[in-house]
Structures are given as C-alpha cells and as structure tokens.
C-alpha cells in the first residue's frame, strides 16, 4: 500500500487525500483524452450543472489498471477508518470492534465505471451525495488560472472560493471543508458526505474523474 497520503478529519467523516504518481496521472489523462468524444451522460441522471459529462469506456484492460490504481488507496482509507473507530470505541469504554479484517482479501466494484466531468466558466455542481459506500474524485486537469481566482476574483467577500471543492457535514451545513483543486490530486470520502463545486470565471476547462465504490467485502 502507498504510504504517501493524508487523512483529513475536519468534522465527523474523514476525507482521504493523496497524489497520483507521474505514471498514473499520465495514464488517467490519456484515458480521458481518448474518451473525450465519447458518450454524453443524460444530464437528468447527474446533478452537475455543466454541458459535458461523459461515460468512460470500461473494457477489461482499462478496468484492470484502474482497479490496481485504486486498490492501495481504498485499503489505506478503510484501514484508517477501522483504526479510528477502534480507538474511539476503546477510549470510550465501549465494546471492542470485530477482529481486524485481512485487507489483502478486500474486493469491491465500481458499478458501471468512472465518469468524466468537463467544467467550464460559470458551470458548477450543487450540493449532493453519491450512491455506493465510498466515492472518489481525481483532478485530471485543473488549469492554474482556477487556483489563482481566489486572489483575482473581483467581488469583495470574506469567503473566497471560486472553483473550489467543498464537503459539508452536520445540521444546516455546520461543518465544511474546502480544497483548491490541483491536477493529480486524489480524494476518497463516504458516499453520503455531501459536497459541491463552486463556479469559476476563467475561460478554461477543468476535467475531473469520479466514481463510486460498491459492495466492499472480505474473503473468509
């Protein structure tokens, strides 16, 4: 398993953050480029307020590489979540958790596979949550103009967040955590954790890849 990752705990649920290797990012970008004229997803099936969201072709060779890419991160995240739950239970004098699973036997699926989001100026994704158990995002290509908008955005405000990804938790959104998207970043989080993407103004295109994890199980 890769050891280069962060577990961010801004509120109850945790968020996993890592960075793809140069080789992995090149493969993902090539995958996206070769799929850029693929099948558009019916916008009635996704919440993104954007013109272009694509299904990705998901044949065996692509699926094998993608799952190999995901595996160490999924294991890291689930192991961290297990350890955190165990520590919280132990410290509060509660019941012990079941024996730690054999992480090498973990299996799961990504449903119909990942999809691509192509976001341009003034497009956005409203607050929503996903299906499955875990959800993931890869920042495939994020132009630097977007990250600089928090400094150049002309409107005066005490919450400068153009183009940022935000997770929201708690009653009335009492807890929130924002990140400035950067090419190559990789995020995992519980499927029910609400999140949104703010619009930006720059005349550029931001590409992200999303997916959901279903049916994680361990062999006996």
Verbal overview:
The structure is a single chain. Strands 1, 2, 3, 4, 5, 7, 10 and 12 form an 8-stranded antiparallel β-sheet that branches. Strands 6-11-8-9 form a 4-stranded antiparallel β-sheet, with no helix packed on it. With 220 residues, it is an alpha+beta fold. 25% of the residues lie in helices and 31% in strands.
Key features of this structure:
220 residues; alpha+beta; four-stranded antiparallel beta sheet; 3 helices
Radius of gyration, in angstroms, nearest whole number: 18 Å
Residues in β-strands, percent: 25-35%
SSE arrangement, N to C: EEHEHEEEEHEEEEE
Terminal CA distance reads: 21 Å
Fraction of helical residues: 10-25%
Low-confidence spans: none
**Overall strand count:** 12
Shape: globular
Number of distinct helices: 3
Main sheet summary: 8 strands, antiparallel
Label the structural class: alpha+beta
What do the pLDDT scores average to? Answer: 88
Produce the secondary structure layout.
Layout: E1 5-8, E2 15-19, H1 22-34, E3 52-55, H2 60-91, E4 106-109, E5 115-120, E6 125-128, E7 134-141, H3 144-152, E8 165-169, E9 175-179, E10 185-190, E11 194-197, E12 205-218
Antiparallel strand pairs: 1-2, 2-10, 3-5, 4-12, 5-12, 6-11, 7-10, 7-12, 8-9, 8-11
Brief synopsis:
Helices cover 25% and strands 31% of the residues.
